[in-house]
Design goal:
This protein is α+β, with helices and mostly antiparallel strands and about 160 residues long. The chain has 4 helices and 9 strands, in the order E-H-E-H-E-E-E-E-E-H-E-E-H. The protein has a single domain, classed as Beta Barrel (Small Protein B, Chain: A). About 30% of the residues lie in helices and about 35% in strands. Belongs to the SmpB family.
Amino acid sequence: MSNVKVVKKNNGGTIAQNKRARHDYFIEEKFEAGLSLQGWEIKSLRAGRMSLVESYIIFKNNEAFLFGAQIQPLLSASTHVVAEANRTRKLLLNRRQIDTLLGAVNQKGYSCVPLACYWKGHLAKLEIALVKGKQLHDKRQTEKDRDWQRDKARIFHR
């Protein structure tokens, strides 16, 4: 008998990140949401063809939707399926999570944006966050702090 372990690949983990959101907003609270997707979209996600740059979360009828995210169809997509890259996709959240997000957006003035899309097992998950906008001086201060942390790590590493 051989002691061979079978290790599954997790397909890279992260599908897409929204680095612009981390630069433009203060992140207050994060949530994990599922995505309601079609078959061609899953195949495109496995190929890494997703962009979250100009996307945000909207709420209608006590449901959350991902608006503005692009999933580019593969060239080998089926001809009988109409592949719409900018389609609004439903987010799968618990009622309590939706109530928390909806209350913060409507009453406290927060925005809700996606931060990253990643694989969790065989499921595609979306990391969303309640955020507040940064002003120009806040962005500069964040950049200075990041540079200082990098320089400090470089100095102490020697």
